[in-house]
Inverse folding.
C-alpha cells in the first residue's frame, strides 16, 4: 500500500461512502450502484481506484463482481474505518448520507433474503424428502461440533457450503471461515444466510472441490458436509482438501454410509451411493490423512457417518502412518 494512493483514493465523497459500506458487508458492484444511486460504470470506476489503492478487493462470481474490504490492509484499514467513524460522528452532512446508505443497504439485505426464500420454496419438497431418510440435522450438527471440539478450528474451509449452514454453525468458534460452492445460486442463498456475520470472519468463494482456488497449507480445518456423494471420483477432492490444509490440520466428512437407494441418483443427482468405512479410510490414507474411528448416526433408512482425519506432514508416507490409524 502506498500512502499517497490511499489519500488520493479517499479524496472523493462517493469513495468514502463505499468504504463505509464495505465495513458492513460484501457487496456486488450492482448492489453498490443501487445504494449510491449512481450508474454501474461510474461506481466501477470508483471501485477500481479503491482496489488500486489496496483499500478494497474484487472477486468475480459468474457474471457478478463482488467487492469487499481488503484483507491485506490490516492496521491501515482499521485506521481508515476509525477515521470514517469519527467523520460520521462529527460531520452532519456525511452522517446523513451514511444513514441513508444504510437504509438502502437494509433493502439489499431483504432482497437477498427474499431470493433465498424463493429458492427454498422451489426445492423444499425434495429436501424434505431426503431429510426424512436420515437422522435429524440438529443431531448431526451436534455430533459434528462435539467431534471437532477437542482442538481449535483456526481457519476453516467449508467445501460445498450449500445454504451456508456449516459456515454459520462454526463461524463463532473459528478464527475465519471460507465458504466455497460451485453453484452460483447456492452461493447467493448462503450469502443471504451469512450476511449478518462480520466480513472479517466470513468469505464466500465460487470454486470446484476438485480444483480449489487456494494456495497450499492455508487452512486448519476442512469440512465436506453432504458433498462428497456428488463426486464421481472422490479422490481428487480429498487430495485438494489435503493440499490446502496445514500439517496436523483436520478434515471432517459428513456423508451417508453405503446404501442401495438407487433413486437418489436420478432424483437428487447423487453420483455415489454413500461410502463404506474401509473405502473412506483408504481414500483418506491415499490423500495423506490419518483416519480416526468414524461416528455413525442411525435413525432412518440412511445412516449418516462422520469420518475424521488428520493431515500428516508431507514427509510422512501413507505406508508408515497406516499402522497408527484406527478404522
Amino acid at each position: 500500500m502506498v500512502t499517497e494512493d490511499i489519500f488520493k483514493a479517499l479524496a472523493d465523497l462517493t469513495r468514502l461512502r463505499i468504504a463505509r459500506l464495505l465495513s458492513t458487508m460484501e457487496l456486488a458492484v450492482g448492489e453498490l450502484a443501487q445504494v449510491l444511486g449512481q450508474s454501474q460504470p461510474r461506481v466501477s470506476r470508483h471501485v477500481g481506484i479503491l482496489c488500486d489503492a489496496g483499500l478494497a478487493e474484487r472477486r468475480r462470481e459468474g457474471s457478478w463482481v463482488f467487492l469487499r474490504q481488503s484483507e491485506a490492509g490490516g492496521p491501515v484499514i482499521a485506521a481508515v474505518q476509525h477515521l470514517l467513524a469519527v467523520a460520521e460522528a462529527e460531520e452532519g452532512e456525511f452522517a446523513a448520507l451514511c444513514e441513508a446508505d444504510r437504509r438502502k443497504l437494509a433493502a439489499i439485505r431483504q432482497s437477498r433474503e427474499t431470493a433465498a426464500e424463493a429458492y427454498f420454496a422451489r426445492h423444499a419438497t425434495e429436501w424434505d424428502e431426503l431429510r426424512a431418510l436420515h437422522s435429524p440435522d440438529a443431531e448431526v450438527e451436534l455430533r459434528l461440533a462435539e467431534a471437532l471440539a477437542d482442538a481449535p478450528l483456526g481457519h476453516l474451509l467449508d467445501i460445498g457450503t450449500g445454504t451456508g449452514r456449516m459456515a454459520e454453525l462454526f463461524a463463532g468458534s473459528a478464527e475465519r471461515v471460507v465458504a466455497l460452492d460451485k453453484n452460483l445460486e447456492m452461493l447467493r442463498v448462503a450469502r443471504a444466510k451469512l450476511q449478518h456475520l462480520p466480513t472479517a470472519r466470513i468469505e464466500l468463494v465460487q470454486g470446484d472441490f476438485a480444483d480449489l482456488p487456494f494456495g497450499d497449507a492455508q487452512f486448519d480445518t476442512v469440512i465436506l458436509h453432504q458433498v462428497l456423494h456428488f463426486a464421481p471420483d472422490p479422490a481428487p477432492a480429498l487430495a485438494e482438501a489435503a493440499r490446502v490444509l496445514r500439517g496436523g490440520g483436520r478434515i471432517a466428512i459428513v456423508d451417508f454410509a453405503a446404501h442401495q437407494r438407487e433413486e437418489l441418483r436420478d432424483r437428487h443427482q447423487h453420483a455415489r451411493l454413500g461410502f463404506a468405512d474401509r473405502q473412506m479410510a483408504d481414500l483418506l490414507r491415499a490423500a495423506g490423512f490419518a483416519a480416526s474411528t468414524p461416528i455413525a448416526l442411525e435413525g432412518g433408512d440412511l445412516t449418516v457417518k462422520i469420518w475424521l482425519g488428520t493431515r500428516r506432514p508431507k514427509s510422512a508416507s501413507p505406508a508408515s502412518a497406516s499402522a497408527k490409524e484406527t478404522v
Observations:
- The chain has two domains: 3-107, 133-324.
- DSSP finds 13 helices and eleven strands in the chain.
